[in-house]
Amino acid sequence: MAIQEVRVQTMPYLEDVKGKYLLHEIQNTLHITSITELVTAKVYRLEGISAQQAEFLARHLLAEEVFQIYKVNEAIIKNADKLVEVAYKPGVMNPEAGSILKAAADLGIPEMVAADSSYEYGLYGTLTDAETELILTRLLVNETVERVVTEKPATLIIKGQPGGTRVIPIRNMNDAALLDLSKDNLFLNLEEMQAIQNYFAALDRDPTDCEIETLAQTWSEHCGHKTFKATVMIDGQAKEPFYQRLRESTNQTAHPLVLSAFEDNSGVIDFYDGLALCGKVETHNSPSAIEPYGGAMTGSGGVFRDILGTGKSAKVIASTDMFCFAPPDLPDSEVPPGCLHPHYLLRRVVDGVRDYGNRMGIPTNNGSVHFHRDFRAKPSVIVGAYGLMPAADAGKGQPVNGDLAVTIGGRTGRDGIHGATFSSGEMTSRTMDVNASAVQIGHAIEEKRISDALLRARDEELIQAITDCGAGGFASAFGEMGEDTGVRIYLDRAPLKYQGLAPWEIWVSESQERMALAVAPEHMERLAAICREHNVEVTVIGEFTGTGKLELFYYDEMVGELTMEFLHHGLPKRIMTAVPHEHSVQVSEPGLPCDWEQVCTQVMQHLNVCSKEPIVRMYDHGVQGSSALPPFAGVAGDAPNDAVVIAPVPGQKYGVMIAHGLNPVLNSLNPYAGSIWAATEAVSNAVASGANPDELVLIDNFIWPYPDEASLYDLDRAVDACVDFVTATGMPFISGKDSLSSTYRALDGSVLKIPPVLCISCFGRVADVTQTISTDFKRPGSIIALIGRRNVQQMGGSAYFDVTGAASPRVPLIDPAQLITTLRSLYQANRSDSVLACHDISEGGLLAALAEMCLGGEMGAAVNLPANERADYSLFNETAGCFLVELADQAQSEELFKDVPHIILGHTTAEPNISVTQANNNIFNISTAKLFTAWQKPMQEVFGGC
Amino acid sequence: MLNMNKSKPRVCILRTDGTNCDQETAYAFNKSGGDSRLVHVNQLRSGAEKLADYQILAVPGGFSYGDDIHSGKVLSVELASFLNDQLRRFVDDGKLVLGICNGFQVLVRTGLLPWGELGSIQATLMQNDSGHFECRWTNLLVEQNNCVFTQGLAGTMVQYQAAHGEGKFHTNEATLQKIEQAGQVVFRYANVASGQPTQDYPQNPNGSLHAIAGICDQTGRILGLMPHPERFVETFHHPNWRRVSLGEPHGLPIFRNAVAYAAQTGAGC
Fold it and tell me: Do B240 and A635 touch (CB under 8 A)?
């Protein structure tokens, strides 16, 4: 059928904003100066309508004559030196296509059968081919999902003949053949492949591709958490699996708020008024490494679905994002083959998180970004979500025999196939080519309407059980839901985006925005009506049975049959060996600074200290009207708070506190101490803001190199740190996730281990949000007290040592037992109305914390450092669990903090300077403006001003 | 349907795919004495709900249909195609219409703003000059005019959070002059220190012409604005409630004025 093309452009006399920023980036980031101008146009392709109809749509839908011009079936950028059109590849779903079809139908043109949209870029100037190529690869085209359009397509409709079901002759395979089958697709080891071989040998038949794929998904590291469930051998001694240690420590706390820990798609705690809160934090590193925009979007979408799939479904009320990247100014030559530049990655990941969270209407209000050169092969992209639901709906639902197996939401396509197994593998220079299908573009609006429909269905008690289709797609979702009963699925009944999918592809596809439900037959009609009202597709694709089997059909053909016993318990238990090793660091300490101003500004503009405000501004952190403590506040709105507080129930003063902590640098130097630091930082952020430490719970995310013997030992130390932290403080982990593929293998076989990341998130309930605390100094003349124990000689891993080129293995060692005393004392102080402001000390040390408090209050401070501490160490030590507190007078400090380490450091001043003395000798005096400029500079350079 | 409770005007909070500020907008009206109901556009199309049963129509913020093609465009097309008569009558009956953020974009793209002419697009909300979505608190100067929603606020400054990527008010010079001369500008982005309208970023977060943040129609009964009054209806919604006293939450008068007007006029139901 004919395709009509409509091209739309901003009127020539108005600014082409998209073009302006691209030009700026080409000139300033790619340093290409031969380009003089860049103009953009949007291209719509509309199939199945006439040119007259296209003209009508151009006028009434696609272009607005107030500010745009359009052309039908004609070029619109006519005199550019180079003209490039970039579109999604066929098969990558363009979320806009559905809206174009809908609006055309609403305008009386239902004949349109397909639509697509793309962008054209007109480049002006004497660009060389090499420069054009650089612009395309670095800025305009991500070849994983996009392509340069060189000719008008004949059709937009994807056609295909479905492949059949293949039988894999596994019984005849030798070990080499088994491994060959596993490589690049299944990511299973020889022992696991042999277990599959033995299972089918006993059945006297070979498996189908559906069966092999089902096992590969379920047994993948991503879904099966094999390392965390393995027995760990150290020096000949067997230690309990990590997973078991974490769970047991949680059980031992017997925390009264915990309703569900490690059982459901997120952890659940009690809230107020018969409500419950839940939290989940996910990683999406591998997809984000090869397609950062789509990868980050699907990361957000996935973790939101975890909340929607908790209990009988919860409403998502907040989102968090924590990233680790290589520095954005990394020289191109240092980017490993097959990897994307961190400047591009950072910006596109932020765009992805922004576009998903904002469109779904989830406030993204807590997060951080960390930088280290060794993230150059693969970033860490961590996205969290928190939810609210009736406590009565908080338990995980169980299907019963006869329930319908229902899928709702998006259609199934070829996208995302092998995502779970891909996430479990190492990244190599081949990853971008081989695993391109593992990433797709998320469709936030689809997920939003699913959410609207599901919450209604929950309230009408129509949902027996629910889970999300994430990694492993239907295979994981229905395979898990049917574990205790059995389930029969008819793959031909699943709605498809386009024809041509083989049964196994339908089964393991990871197409986004789908949920799996168990629904009693008598509720199906009502559920369908709700879905219709919300424009959500819902389909019965099977039923839960009492057979204890997974049975897969494609029309009349049985294409798979596995016992739930083998699927879920046939995976060989691993015994893994960890070997202790030293993290040797040459000690090199800096001399006392000669130029304090220079050192202070260097620390403030250190990438791990600097302001991340330009990122936060792009996230809608106020939607849902729940904000009670925003990520940035203070006089000019540019000073960071430690945690976020929301009041998610309109009209109620009770609220939710959310915070987090991570420090890959410390984790690299000392996995145990770094992990304690991360947990301490998380809860300190919350308590500094007014949380009660006895009403906080934790979520772990281990993002670790592939667990060889050395990395496994480090991981063991990190897990032990978590357990020790729980035992000492009583704050339990209720959810967690491990991603053990932070290893890059280059073509020459050399290996780059990405720094280990333990991200600890924490959340809890707050009885009254009006009793929470911000970081900005409130008035001149207040007392500034330093609360908490620290040994300032422990400078290893600090930003100060980084900027001075120093190094030391002596990292901050925090005693969790002492910490909990400090936290409880601070909580009581915060409740007393005596605390005007509070900020915890983290990266950048006391100086950075003090500067941020001054920035928020637009005032200054005079501090006198303890006489027995090295002045620079005192200012830049990064021991978490220490706090700066603003109090009206000194007597209050003695009274409030009599049981914990505390000193009076100084006082706030009206003049915007920070003056530092020691033993009453002047050390230096610096204007806060200088510090702020330095602190704001790095991210402004990456993202533009804010 | 008869409005049984005359003291509680009924508010239709219009929803569709991607609407996401509906619940807080409903709460803001309810807190101000309204009786809000979330109504999906499909319910209006099917006839299960009728605009005539309501006295106030609010089109809340969000990303209706993903803001595909243009922000608010697909919903505008839908309203103009299927609910033209209902909307026309609603407006002609002297009832109130409020569009916030995406809702403002919808009101402009249906033609209800600036002149209540359904199907005639006279102004637009373009991409921000910054090139991207931004969420920040803005300081707004309230103009003196006949806008029902801002009675009693003229000349004052209010602070609302803005959160949008396409909020730059733009129209041709003639239309702009006509809007200005008719006194249809309701809110302007203003410098917090001087109190004067500003084109400076970030106080003017999007580069709007004449610093326009919100306009009404000539009757004063249809209001659209980009910043979010529903996000400041509790003291603790403000980012700096701990350091400054701001009096009554600045968003409340908008909803209270609307509810009071609807209760007094009892229009239509």
Answer: yes
